[in-house]
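sorry for the late reply, my laptop died twice this morning and i had to redo everyting from scratch. anyway the thing you sent over, i finally got around to it. pasting the sequence first so we're on the same page, its 323 residues, then the predicted structure underneath. double check i copied it right bc i was rushing
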Amino acid sequence: MLESVIKYKEIEKYPWIMFFWALLISTVGILFSLQLSYQIQLSGASVDLTGLFAVIFTIIPSVYFLTLIVKRHEKMDEQDLARHYEKGFWQRHDRDVIIFLLYFFGLTFSFAFWAFTLDSGTFQIQLMKIQEIRAMSGNLLSGSTLSGSASGGESMKFIQVLINNLNVTAFAFIFSLLFGAGAVFIVVWNASILGVYIGRLSETLLHIPGVALGFLPHGIPEIAGYLLASISGGVISAAIIRGHGKPIVLRVIADSMKLLALALLFVLLGALIETMDIITKMVSIFIFYTIFIYLITVAISSGDGRGTVSPAAARPTKKKKLI
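ok and here's the structure:
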């Protein structure tokens, strides 16, 4: 039922609804997981799996709806290509990225709120991962990213963070390619870890937005990279499943590779912002947010996303009805 609370057309017209939908389904998932309270013995210690169940119950309604979004956009691309519409690759996928970003932010805020509100043992799984990452980073008190940077010089930290983030990007692409919306697990899991970390760092509920701001400079590039990789793999998967002809499949693959290249660029900039000296940080921040603001501006100004009709389609040889 939760996946039917909102309609695709509503999300297409008002993408910000996705933030509140993610907030709703994650809240329901967390509250439902509290009723299970299942524990296992791991290395002689009792581990509460409530946090893992919260992730699973959030994924269940998400998979259907996010798969629907990717398939709908891929179908519209097919129709536009058949009607000889010419659109830039970003015009074809801008709404996907915005929708997925708002979905991630909604999940993060929800997990941050409940991590602050509930008992510390509720999200024991996430806290164990956070402790592992903090131990690897060797920086227990800073608001460093959850990417697993190692202690040492800036170059070593950069390589550690970049390799870790590239691994996540690769998994997001492969999971989406093989399972359609398989990368939803990666998105929800990372949102839960980041949200729990923000919630634990916050002294009051009002501090949550302020703490979250400390993660934005490098967090948005990294998350945007993961989401772009997920969309890239998902679009190819949808095109293959629908059994399109060669021209459409080649167009889809070309778009996906552009999205993947943009994802790799964002992940690289995120690693630079996180680990390098102040000058490199500022330059990287300027480059990313210039690109990001430009892409968002294009998405907003594109209206319904329609492109122009190609000269071949404009010839008066045969009149076509455009819907």
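Residues 2-304 form one domain.
thats about all i looked at so far, will dig more tmrw
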